[in-house]
Amino acid sequence: MSSQTIKEVDAVVLGAGFAGLYMLHQLRSKGFSTIVYEAGDGVGGVWYWNRYPGARCDIESIYYNYTFSKELYEEWTWTSRFPEQAEILRYLNYVADRFQLRSDIQFNTRVTAAHFDEKRHKWMIHLNDGQYILTRYFITGIGCLSAANVPNIQGLQQFNGKWYHTGHWPHEKVDFTGKRVGIIGTGSSGIQAIPVIAKEAEQLTVFQRTPQYTIPARNHAYEEDFIKETKKNFEAIKRSMRNSVSGTPFAQNQQSAMEEPDDKRQAVFEKAWAQGGFAFSATYHDLLTNEQSNEKAAEFIRSKIRQIVKDPVVAEKLCPKYMYGTKRQVLDSDYFETYNRENVLLVDVKESPIQKITGEGIQTADNHFDLEIIIFATGYDGMTGPLFKIDIRGRNGVSLKEKWKDGAAVQTYLGLTTAGFPNLFMITGPESPSVLVNMPIAIEQHVEWIAECMHYLREHDIDLVEPTIEAEEAWSTHCRDVANATLYVKGDSWYTGANIEGKPRSFLIYLGGFDYYTKHCNEVAQNNYVGFKLMKLKSIS
Ligand code: NAP
Asked: Which residue has a Cα nearest atom 43 of ligand 1?
């Protein structure tokens, strides 16, 4: 390392998705030299990798985009309510070109390690091509769901057919025509893919471990007038999203589901079901805090499944029994209807577990399924997974993995920073509102806060920023207290880490509301970054 000339920048950003692109734009505008490293050969992050059939957004497109530029909002026109992956990827490419971001993004480059050098007071970034780069600030924009989980099922290497994970889908089209296809997993990815693949494949076998509460998306093309009106109301929409609980401009009904007479509640649920999208989860305020209210929502969805799916045995297998919403709410397009097709078979792997993958398919406890293609829609090692894939080491050579005890003892301040790792910022990191908020809006708030913080430090000749142990302990305790007051923590999901064998159970999403969170972050900044140690090198050495 010593013989090499080491390039130096003010900031290194990981990932060229929604987070990395906007971080680069912000830092450039504030005069920080910045380089973004991206493992893929294009921008897009999650929308670059998730090219599986049926992949689309489940937040309405007019809200699932950047709001930092009025001009950008006016220039870009979404075709439909829930556009497909390709359209979102086009949008992010447009953004990269519009703001001339590509010149500071190095593609096809993985950061393997980032070590805080205590002599230089800077981060040494190690790249997969053997290069190093020195930076004052190290910022991760790698998302919460980028570490794919391919379950360790015996025999996968022997499989004679092709297999894919939804999160690492090939760029070229996978042709299912005339093929016997198996898909493992019925989360958001599986539920989007299943109806589309079923239309093409000769036979689709769905290996389901846990059924899902899913609501019709009711996608539709946007009318020209609607788009015009939306663009006209940009400022109001932006304000409303940024001041909301969830980063969308919808107010939640403040009533309890239990306060409503049965017929009225039924009508409310019916209306939300017909409307599609996330309206259902906002019908009552206590669906995720009151078990009785939760069961009312759960039973409504079960009744819909029983109406749609013609075979009552299949319908029953598709009816979830756990609490509604403790796994992420899924939106679908003709998911339950797909089980009425003759070429679709549902296999309950709780009843008959997968034993192994053979050369010819999947062996369960009581059957062998001949397959030519296997799809793993088996999700991700969420929240900490993407960070743990990189060897991030702070003071005294301690890694993030060691500090957080493999995920058993995650502690952050505001979900943005962690003690012992100076000048490290995590965009939508653990213990921030992240995935339970409209992600682009959550990202914008983080990016702007980080950029402002860096600007403040520069203006005040401060070289290092690091939270105090006390501040992060208080924040983590607050996060846990808020989460423990909800039903989320009772579910087995990637939210709680229960989807990954051996992963310590913890709930790492801040549930206090995006509006409260933003206000709190702003107060921290206004109070000269209370909770942080602000260090000048002159006084350290
Ligand atoms: P997921 O929600 O974690 O679902 C994974 C599925 O695989 C579950 O059904 C799980 O069963 C099953 N599974 C995992 N390991 C298995 C095994 N060894 N044997 C059998 N089944 C197994 O993952 P995902 O569907 O990729 O979604 C992850 C998240 O990504 C979503 O919650 C969402 O936040 C995001 N996403 C969003 C969109 C969108 O529309 N915007 C689309 C896709 C994904 P269990 O439930 O029993 O664990």
From this structure: 189
**For residue 376, which atom of ligand 1 is closest to its CA?**
7
Is there an atom of ligand 1 within 6 Å of 349 CB? yes
Average pLDDT over residues 383-400: 96
For the segment 172-202, what is each residue's pLDDT rounded down to a tens digit?
Answer: 999 999 999 999 999 999 999 999 999 999 9
Q: In this predicted model, what pLDDT tens digit does every residue of 316-327 receive, in sequence order?
A: 999 999 999 999
At 5 the pLDDT is 62
Question: Per CATH, the architecture of 3-147+382-463+509-519 is what?
Answer: 3-Layer(bba) Sandwich (3.50)
494 lines ligand 1 (CB under 6 A): yes
Instruction: Provide the 10 A C-beta neighbour count for residue 522.
Output: 14
**Cα separation, 426 vs 444, whole angstroms:** 13
**Which of 168, 369, 499, 505 to mutate to test ligand 1, by most ligand atoms within 8 A of the CB atom?**
499
Mean residue pLDDT of the chain comes to 96
Minimum-distance ligand 1 atom for the alpha carbon of 349: 20
CA distance 395 to 470: 17
- Tokens representing 413 are 């301040």
